[in-house]
Design goal:
This protein is of the alpha+beta class. It is built from four helices and six strands.
């Protein structure tokens, strides 16, 4: 049986659903397709604690692998640093502490990218 991989927008929406289900805050999905070849979408969220950031990272890795056969190509950063990045090729997930998100200001840096969805 051939594995069916998700399209970029389907994967991004699945990720947003997992983050929302597990109480990530300020979830934003940006459409990068017209701006850069590095990814089709960024999904950015905030975690209220280092522990929550670690849990969100583990949930995405485990549940996307189990449910959709999707694994990140790479993972960078540590919850203790305030920024964890999971690269799923078409979708890059950024899990920030509130302080890390304010410092890196990704939404501001990518303000030309259309906002697909925003969940407070």
């Amino acid at each position: 049986m051939e594995e069916q991989t998700l399209e970029g927008h389907e994967l991004a929406h699945a990720i947003v659903g997992k983050l929302e289900e597990h109480q990530a805050s300020d979830i934003v999905m940006l459409d990068l397709r017209e701006l850069t070849p590095i990814a089709d979408y960024f999904v950015i969220c905030s975690a209220d604690s280092e522990r929550q950031a670690r849990t969100l990272q583990e949930i995405l890795r485990a549940e996307l692998k189990e449910e959709h056969k999707e694994r990140p190509l790479s993972t960078e950063g540590e919850p203790a640093s305030g920024w964890v990045l999971l690269d799923y090729n078409t979708v890059v997930v950024h899990i920030f502490s509130h302080e890390g998100r304010a410092f890196y200001r990704l939404e501001e840096r990518w303000k030309a990218a259309p906002v697909v969805l925003k969940i407070q």
